[in-house]
Amino acid sequence: MEYKTLEDYVGHTPLVRLKRITAGRGNVILAKLEGNNPAGSVKDRPALSMIVHAEARGDIRSGDTLIEATSGNTGIALAMAAAMRGYHMILVMPENQSVERRQTMRAFGAELVLTPKEGGMEMARDVAEQLRDEGKGIILDQFANADNPLAHFEGTGPELWEQTGGTITHFVSSMGTTGTIMGTSRYLKSRNPEVCIVGCQPEEGSQIPGIRKWPEAYLPKIYDKTWVDRLEYVSQADAEEMTRRLAREEGIFAGISSGGAMQVALRLAAGLENAVIVSIVCDRGDRYLSTGVFPA
Fold first, then answer.
1. Taking the complete model, does pTM exceed 0.90, yes or no?
2. Given 88, 113, 139, which residue is the final one in a domain?
3. Where does pyridoxal 5'-phosphate bind (predicted)?
4. Which of 4, 8, 151, 284 is the most exposed place for a label (fewest CB within 10 A)?
5. Which helix (H) or strand (E) holds 242?
């Protein structure tokens, strides 16, 4: 008998219909539960993709040290993938990310380098590049690595097409590295150019883990705005409230970026009829418990 390994369970996540949080008028709102991946987030897909493809090209080999700047989920996913495939992982992240994220990364054996919260992800990316230039390791670079969106072109997109029977009309995704929205958009539009791709970004002044509006100099190189039909902005308060509603009213225990994307999905549905709207639930809520988003 041939047994499966952990890698075989990355992807193929459930797609579930919301039953109580609805907008009526025949609309169907679906949640893609990426927290069901082995390390608990949508980032399991690109993390494994970047390592496997780099190995295939001969860019890295087991025993090497890998470096990545992260706000959390990619770091956790890379730490898991590195543990599976025999790499040392150095993760650079702002110090204000949740303690659960840091503990999870260290549990997988990763080394953490924390940067001042005032510098945000921009400083974390700069420090990662400095470590690479000092010869400390190799950067996979989720922000510029084509194997990031490729994971969604080959995985997330085809899954959604199959799970909806090709009836999907709208796809909503929070935007961080933009890998999820880029790869999924390319696949869905290859099947039906009329599928509307909606990106979720934070309103001015809002800080939502996993969602970013990048300064021009730090805009991910994998991002191509032609694959996003519209941008919608969400406040931190609305994202957090929808996160709590998903848990209370639907039993979906998710992170704050997922609440932001779902808030946008509901907003879209208010002006639509008979639409099939898919929103990405990026991760699970347990890595946000210390942030205070959920009542104690």
1. yes
2. 139
3. 73, 176-180, 257
4. 4
5. helix 236-245
- The one catalytic residue in 43, 49, 71, 185 is 43
The four Cα atoms 156, 59, 92, 239 give a dihedral, to 10 degrees, of -10
Q: In the prediction, which pLDDT does 209 show? A: 85
- The Cα 67–Cα 76 span in angstroms is 13
pLDDT attached to residue 24: 83
Give pLDDT, residue 214.
85
The catalytic position among 185, 257, 258, 279 is 257
- Structural domain for 115, as ranges: 43-139
**Is residue 131 domain-resident?**
yes
200 in Cβ contact with 211 (< 8 Å):
yes
Q: Which pLDDT does position 98 carry in this prediction? A: 81
Pair 11, 125 in one domain: no
The question of whether 257 is a catalytic residue gets the answer: yes
pLDDT score for 101: 87
Query: Mean pLDDT, 10 residues at a time, over the chain (296 residues)?
Result: 94 97 92 98 97 97 95 92 97 88 94 92 93 96 96 98 98 96 98 98 90 86 97 96 97 97 96 97 93 88
Q: Is 192 annotated as a binding residue?
A: no
**pLDDT at residue number 120:** 86
Does 257 count as an annotated binding residue? yes
**The tokens of 38 are what?**
């082995």
Question: Do the annotations mark residue 179 as ligand-binding?
Answer: yes
**Does 178 appear as a known binding residue?**
yes
Q: Is residue 31 within 8 Å of 163, Cβ to Cβ?
A: no
243 lies in the same domain as 214: yes
Instruction: Identify whether 43 is a catalytic site residue.
Output: yes
Write out the DSSP string of 47-69.
HHHHHHHHHHHTS--TT-EEEEE
